[in-house]
Write a structure and sequence with these properties.
This protein is an alpha/beta fold. Helices cover about 30% and strands about 25% of the residues. The chain is elongated and about 65 Å long. Bound molecules: NADP nicotinamide-adenine-dinucleotide phosphate. NADP nicotinamide-adenine-dinucleotide phosphate binds next to helix 1, helix 2 and helix 3.
Length: about 325
């Protein structure tokens, strides 16, 4: 089937818009959809560069991990891409209908495409990996990015009693009380001052949602454990992103001297069925405006240019094959 798509022909080069021969659906669970919107998430970039841990290494490939499409019966669906099928950055694509959810009438497709991937990280972590208990306190490490900002709101929606937001960009950090952070901590180059501020604001948290890893995580683990009043009380650390580095140094004493529980949340750590079960409730949260997102729609045909542009902090780019009304330009909130 002839479609137009963002096509990656060599890892290391951005996708280029052009004709693509979309394989026909096979089996009763596959269906063709007109793509309406697909988010350009960090995970999409790592998949398109061949560096993500799920990468199959096959080329050419059409990138994307999720999107919103219109089925042949006219219903709009949010869908999670299947690694074995062409991705959603195309005018039409094939979805596995078992990985799709019908959207509520009037849903803002750009908003859904922007928010689902970053919001799902904390939603699944706090529902499936370490289910949060009402009133527990949460530290979001790396709170200034898209996923971090949503983690603050998700934690609140799921019953957190206190949310501490830690991040690098001080101007954006200052906006986070407006979306539910009780306290903020600036991660600065002054390691001593940062450790003291973390100890002061977050030593008694129950859960950490970590988008950073690398040195900030190394430093934060020890700062929290050293200051903790009762080291026998569980500190659940949920590793989700690694924007600050792929490795940490973890002194063995961290695991012996405290009830420190380290685990991750992502594809593999949580089953596909576990993710799919969470989609409808998260779609409702986003559609009802309980989890805010700032999206920037851009034409899919401009993918090569858009791909090379620096990301606007706190804004998620969404590629649209045909701009839906009201989203031709500017931001969608
Ligand atoms: N496992 C999952 O289920 C899952 C799901 C979604 C996303 N993720 C991962 O989560 C991470 C964040 O995703 P996102 O969508 O929020 O990306 P994003 O919107 O690009 O945000 C990343 C933020 O990280 C901050 N940052 C970068 N380096 C930093 C450092 N050294 N110290 C402190 N902050 C730093 C930047 O903020 P400043 O410019 O303010 O410093 C940036 O805004 C990515 O690694 C992504 O792959 C995982």
């Amino acid at each position: 089937m002839d479609v137009h798509a963002a096509v990656v022909r060599s890892f290391g080069s951005p996708p280029r818009y052009g004709p693509f021969d979309l394989p026909a659906p096979s089996g009763g669970d596959q269906a063709v959809v007109d793509v309406l919107a697909a988010g350009l998430h960090p995970r999409v970039r790592s998949g398109a560069s061949g560096s993500h841990y799920t990468s199959t290494g096959k080329l050419p490939m059409v990138p994307g991990v999720d999107g919103v499409g219109r089925r042949e019966d006219g219903q709009m669906v949010y869908f999670v891409a299947d690694d074995e099928l062409a991705g959603p950055m195309a005018t039409r694509t094939v979805i596995d209908t078992r990985r799709s959810v019908v959207l509520p009438d009037g849903a803002d497709v750009v908003k859904i495409a922007a928010a689902m991937n970053p919001a799902m990280s904390a939603w699944v972590a706090l529902r499936r990996r370490v289910p949060i208990e009402a009133g527990q306190s949460v530290l979001v490490l790396g709170a200034t990015g898209n996923a971090g900002q949503m983690a603050i709101q998700v934690a609140r929606r799921l019953g957190a009693g206190r949310v501490v937001a830690a991040g690098r960009d001080q101007a954006r950090l200052a906006t986070l009380p407006g979306i539910g952070a009780d306290a903020t901590v600036a991660l600065t180059s002054d390691a001593g001052a940062t450790a003291a501020a973390l100890a002061d604001a977050a030593s008694e948290v129950d859960l950490v949602i970590d988008y950073l890893w690398g040195k900030p995580a190394t430093d934060t683990i020890m700062a929290l454990l050293r200051a903790r009043a009762d080291r026998g009380r569980a500190l659940n650390w949920i590793q989700i992103g690694s924007v600050a580095g792929p490795d940490i140094q973890l002194p063995s004493v961290a695991l012996r001297s405290a009830n420190f529980r380290l685990q991750g949340s992502g594809q593999g750590a949580v089953s596909t069925s576990g993710y799919l079960a969470e989609l409808p409730s998260l779609i409702d949260e986003i559609d009802n405006g309980h989890i805010a997102v700032t999206a920037r729609p851009a034409p899919l045909s401009d993918v090569e240019t858009v791909w090379k542009e620096p990301e606007v902090p706190g804004v998620r780019t969404v590629l649209v094959p045909v701009a839906p009304s009201g989203h031709a330009d500017g931001l969608s909130k």
